[in-house]
Amino acid sequence: MDKRATSYDVARLAGVSQSAVSRVFSPNGSASKTTRERVLAAAHELGFVPNPIAKSLSLGRSRLAGLVVTQYAQQNYPLALKSAVDLMSETGDALLIQIVDPTDMGDAAIRQLLEKRVDMILCAASISREAAVHCTDAGVPLVMINRQSECAGVDAVCSPNDAIMHDVVDMLHASGARHCVFLGGGGNNWVSAERCRGFVEACTAKGLPEPIVLEDAFTYNGGQSAIRALGASVTNLDAVVAANDAMAIGAMDVLRLDFGLNIPDDIQVVGHDDTETGRFQSYQLTSVRQNMLGIFAKAIELAVSRRNEYRRPDAKITVKNELVERTTTARPTASARDRLAPGTEE
Amino acid sequence: MDKRATSYDVARLAGVSQSAVSRVFSPNGSASKTTRERVLAAAHELGFVPNPIAKSLSLGRSRLAGLVVTQYAQQNYPLALKSAVDLMSETGDALLIQIVDPTDMGDAAIRQLLEKRVDMILCAASISREAAVHCTDAGVPLVMINRQSECAGVDAVCSPNDAIMHDVVDMLHASGARHCVFLGGGGNNWVSAERCRGFVEACTAKGLPEPIVLEDAFTYNGGQSAIRALGASVTNLDAVVAANDAMAIGAMDVLRLDFGLNIPDDIQVVGHDDTETGRFQSYQLTSVRQNMLGIFAKAIELAVSRRNEYRRPDAKITVKNELVERTTTARPTASARDRLAPGTEE
DNA sequence: TCCAGCCTTGCATGCGGATGCAAAGCTTGA
DNA sequence: TCAAGCTTTGCATCCGCATGCAAGGCTGGA
Predict the structure, then answer these.
(1) pLDDT tens for each residue of chain B, 346 residues long
(2) How far is the CA of A334 from the C1' of D13 (A)?
(3) C1' nearest to CA of A6: which nucleotide?
C-alpha cells in the first residue's frame, strides 16, 4: 500500500521548500505566480491532498462537528441529518454523529464527542447541566436544538413549539372543535413538553375547555396506546393534538380501525413535524412543519460565532415553523363560512 | 478558554517524562506500578484525555470510519445508522456520514471521506469503479453493503436479496396467486435490481406466468404512480411485490383508496425492508426483514481484517434475511389447507 | 558476591503541516 | 542609479503523542 504524498514530496518535486507548498494550499498564504504553478503541478502529479489530521494538530481545530440526535425511526431526522451534513461540508467540515436512545440522556454522547476533539456540538437531545458545562469548560461551542439550556455560554435554536399552538387552536376552534386531548411523549422530552404547554395555554386563551393531556411513548405505538386508554370516552372528543406525527398517526389508526370513527368528521387530528408518513394518502395529516434546514443553518452560525467571540450574550433563536392543513382537520372554507349565519362562530 | 492538559503537563505534575505518560495510556506500554499510579493520579487531577488528533498523526490512523448511505426518508436507515455508530464506538472509533441523493452516484462522498483520511469506508450507495479504485489505491478498505463491487480488493456484504424471493413466491403461490407485478426502483439501484431478478427467476422456477415489471421512484410516490399507471388492468392481478416497503405502501394506498380493492382478498402485497411504517396497524405489510446489525457487524469485521491482511481474496458475504408474513398476504393456514381437496394446490 | 537478562525509563525523533522571523528578491519613485 | 518598502521564500519550530534505542535499575541464579 503506497503512502500518500506529503507536502515534503511536493516540495521536492517542485524544487521549493515545504513551507512554500503549505502556503500555496493556505487561503492566506503568499506565493508568487510561478511558485504557485509549479507547486500545483507537482501536487497534481503526485495526487497530493493536504493531510487534515496534521492540519488539525497544527491549527488546534479538528474541523469536525458533533451532532447528537435522539433515535426516533418515525421522526424526520433523516432530513435533519442531511441538512446538517450538507451545511457542514460547505465549509469543509465533517459531522460526527451520536445517536441517543429516547429514554436516555445524551451525556455519554457529549463526552465521546469532546474526547474526539470536535470543534462544536449541535445537540438535539436532553443532556445534564454537567455535560453542558464540560463543553463550555473545554471551549467547545454547544448549541441546543429545540431544547432549553439552563447553562451559561450555551446557545439554543428552537422552533416556536409553544407559540404555533395558537394557530392550531385557532384552526380547531374555527372548525367548531371544543373538547381536545393532547398526546405527549412525557419523560424528559423537552419538545413534547413545550408543545403541550403551548397547546394548553392556547386553549385557555381561546376560551376552550381545558384539554385532557395524555403521556406515552413518543412513537406510533405510544399514540395508539394513549388513545386506546381513553376507551369509550373518545366519542366525547372533538380533536386529538399530538406532539409528533408518529403519535398522531398511531392515534388515527386506533380511532379509525378500533373505534370506527371518521376523520375529520367525527374527530380531528393534528400532528407535528410534517413527516413523509403524514403526507401519505391514507393519512393526509395536518401537521406543523419545522424549517430544519433553517434551524441547522442558524445553529452552525451560532457555533461559529461563538468561537470568534467567546464571551458574548447567549443567543436564544427561534426559526419560524408553519401549520400545514390537510384533511385530518376541517377548518370551514371561506365559502362554507359564508353559509353560516353571522355570529355563529362565537 | 483554558487549553486542555497535554501529556507534558501530566508528566511534569507526576515527575516523570512524557513518554512515561504515553506508555501508561498505551495498551502495550510498560510502566511500573508506582509510575502508573502517579501518572494516573496526575492525569485525573488535570482531567487529561489523550488528544486523538495527535494520536492519529503519530499512528497514521484516524480512527474514523466513513459511511455512505442513500437518502430515503422511508427506508429504515435510521436503524442502520444506529447499528453502525454503536458498533464503531465499541472500538473507540467514530463514524463520518455522507448522505447521497438517490439519483446520484456516491463518488463525491467517497472522495470527501478519503480526503478526511478515514480508516475504512462502508458504502451503501452506488459508486463508480474509479471511486472504488481510489479507495484501494489509498489503502483504505472499502466494503460495499447490499451492493455488488466489480473492483478487486473490495469486499461486499449483502442480504440474499434475490434468493429470498423464492420464499416470497412460494408464499404467494400457496395462497393461489398467479399473476404478479413487481415494482422496482429502476436507475442504478442495485438492491432493487437484485430483488427484481430474484423474483422473476423464482416465478419462472415455480411455473408462474412471467410477472409484469414496473419501475418508478424508489419511494411512496413511486409506488403510487406505478400502480396508477396500471389502470384497470390491475384487477387481473393477484399480487404486487415491491422492492421496498415505501413503494409497497404507496401501492397499497392506491389499490385501496383509488381502486377500492381489498387487501389481501382482492390482491396481495409484499414489501421489503420491514420498516416501522409497514408494521402500522393500517398496513400490516408482509415484508422481508434484513439483519442490519449483522450486516454492519460483518462489514466492519471485513474492513478491519483487510487492514491486517491487505492481499487476501475478496470476501462476498451474505447475511440471512427473513420473510415476515403479516396481513397483506394470505397463505392458507394449515387448517384452511386441510379443508381443500388434496391436489387442489397443484 | 557477581553477572546475565529482563523491566523501566528518558532521550530523541517522527508523524505532516502552519507560521513567525529574517533574509532575499522585487517594485517603485526620486 | 539607488534606497525605501513591499512581496516572496526558506529556516526553524511548534502542535501532542508514539516509539526505537540505549542507559539504568532490578531480579535471580550460580
Answers:
(1) 457 899 999 999 999 999 999 999 998 888 888 999 999 999 999 999 999 999 999 999 999 999 999 877 556 677 788 889 989 988 999 999 999 988 889 999 999 999 999 999 999 999 999 999 999 999 999 999 999 888 999 999 999 999 999 999 999 999 999 999 999 998 878 999 999 999 999 999 999 999 999 999 999 999 999 999 999 999 999 999 999 999 999 999 999 999 999 999 999 999 999 999 999 999 999 999 999 999 999 999 999 999 888 889 999 999 999 999 999 999 776 554 444 444 433 3
(2) 76
(3) C16
> CB count, 10 Å around CB of A335?
7
Chain A, 219 to 278: residues with Cβ < 8 Å from chain B are 220, 224, 249-250, 253-254, 256-257, 275-277
Considering only CB atoms, which chain B residues are within 8 Å of A115? 49, 52
Candidate from B85, B94, B310 with C-beta closest to A1: B310
Q: Which nucleotide is nearest to A58 (CA to C1')?
A: D15
From the CA of A59 to the C1' of C20: give the distance in Å.
15
Beta sheet of B155-158, edge-to-edge order: A316-318, A155-158, A142-145, A120-124, A64-70, A94-100, B94-100, B64-70, B120-124, B142-145, B155-158, B316-318
**Domains, chain A, ranges and CATH?**
7-50 (1.10.260.40), 62-159+292-314 (3.40.50.2300), 164-289+325-339 (3.40.50.2300)
Burial readout A118-140 (b: 16 or more C-beta within 10 A, e: otherwise): bbbbbbbbbbeeebbebbbebeb
Cβ contact, residue pair B78, A73, below 8 Å: yes
B25 touches chain A (CB under 8 A): no
